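Dear Dr. V.,

Thank you for agreeing to look over these. As mentioned in my earlier message, I'm a first-year student in the group and I'm still getting used to reading structure tokens, so any feedback on how I've presented them would be very welcome. I ran two proteins. I've put each sequence directly above its structure. The first is here:
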Amino acid sequence: GLTPSIVSRYSAFVLDQYGVLHDGAKPLPGAVECVAHLKASNKKLAILSNTSAAPEAALERLYSTLGFAPGSFDVAVTSGGECSKHFREKISTPDKVTKVLLFTWSGEEAKIKTSSFLSSLGNVEITANPAECDVAVAHGSDLVLGDIDDLGGEVEHPLTGLRWNCEYGALDPWLRELSSRAVPMYSANPDLKVVTSNNDINYMPGVICKRYESEFDGAVTYFGKPHKEHFLACSEALGVAADQTCHVGDSLHHDILGANDAGMSSIFVGSGIHRDECMVEGKVDENMLGLMIQREGGDSVAPTHAVQLFKMHED
């Protein structure tokens, strides 16, 4: 875990969510107490997350559902929030409707979040017709949201096999039609996969974007990690220089790479997405970690510190 000597080096911490603070359903061991300790030590705290949720929604869930004390975090920057901001400032205009083909999530709770996300984009209209959309947005990986049907419900076109097995059979026809018109895609969540509370792997909207780029030569604009602008947005919002800020995350490619590019120190949490590659008997194995770092990119993905969990530990 984090030691007092590590904590004392930095004025601010930028925290990932999944794999660091919680597993999607409950806080991870020691995380609530660790956040409280940092707050009591007068450290400034930011959430930086590749969630398609708005910043306000991400914070509210941490406080109301996951047990973190209200007011623990000074600011939140989410990929969904940055995508929405870009749409409002660069794409959506009051005098012209932008037609959006939306890859999103299934479920009743997800519908509420999807509706909120669409409202945040500005003057947009949903279409499930790749021949008429202006843009595509990767917000979730369960389905393509269709037109409003005669009963007032939303028609859904499932992406069978994608979220749970990373199977592209249902996805590729959509991407093929989009690429035939060179439709630009925007990523509201660039994560490729996450570990759920049941230790399952969920494949995320980032796989849609990577597939569009690699197999169909599509153009994708990404928001969130590992792009350094989003790390620097956190340090700027906190009023702390990047070299006095430490990012905590569990992904070498999204968290550690982005922190290094932004000039931040980093803490790699081994029990997250890379756990099978770097942990033995519940502890980070230094030899395995070193081999993984070299395999995945060398110095560009090398963290400043490595811990098993985001929790406090004595020196």
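The second protein is here, in the same arrangement:
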Amino acid sequence: MGKFDAELIETANAIATPGKGILAADESTGTIGKRFDKISVENNRDNRRKYRQLLFETKGLGEFISGCICFEETLYEKREDGTSFIDLLKAENIIPGIKVDKGQAPIKDAAPGETSTQGIDGLAARCAEYYKHGARFAKWRAVIKIDAATGAPTQLAIDEQTRGLARYASICQENGLVPIVEPEVLMDGEHDIQLSAAVTERVWYSQIKALAEHKVLFEGIILKPNMVRSGADSKNQASMAEVAAYTLKTLQRTIPPAIPGVTFLSGGMSEEEATNALNELNRAPGKKPWNLSFSYGRALQATVLQEWKGEDSNKEAAQAALLLRAKANGQAQLGKYGGEAAGGAAATTSTYQ
């Protein structure tokens, strides 16, 4: 047993609690600025603090959210009275997490647009510091694109991204953080769901192989993949039932049952689409030895931002919207969502960019 193995297993299983999922509030300064632009809110530190504080002070959020991914600025942020945002999360029994990757860079000799995730240099020291400050899990995103015209994804890109994720996961576990392993096959393109399934299976197979080669403790990780879906511009959009069936089949063929939780990213789906997709997946027939849940950012916050609009007077309405959508996804994790959160334009608007 490694130094942190027992704690890693306990944390991973806590994140994978039935009826709960992850709030991804780890938008970079630039990305949150794009969200704020849509509601005419200035992107400054005070507004970012107010917005994240609104999220973390939502009473009852911990009933449906087990973990929250933070951007580094947010991890060290405090309320006006000096209360740390870490303590706000802990008050709701939500496990604090931290985004640790440093974005994407082109891969030489790969297909055009294929990238490698940056951030390994100095990662061990950063993880140790984040653990000391209260974080108990981390997130690293690696993207894979599909483009039949250019031959993407190349095996070079798949190997580069999955091995990078495995190295990151190993470093996290050595420093007490449960790694969220996020190999995202992007939805950009005109490909059908059959090609999406074939590529996703290749990626997940390579990912598990890389994790095993790096001797990562499977019981102490969480997988955060895409659902298997049609490309955003495909003329043949698969139904949610088809998405569930293809996703489950691909999971069964590649992901070991030792991994306690699979928390899906929303990948540009609207709030309601993301909730329904998860609900269909948990209702689908077949073996599911993992907790199948959510790690949503835009698909939990689109309506929240529209309700808030940067106004303190709108805080309660925004928090109510967050709690409603979090509850909906908690129900979807159990396969029991009945459409209770379907109202409102923002809930049905695509978050694809």
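From my reading of the second output: The first strand starts at residue 21 and ends at 25. The longest helix spans residues 193-213. Does that match how you would interpret it?

Kind regards,
E.
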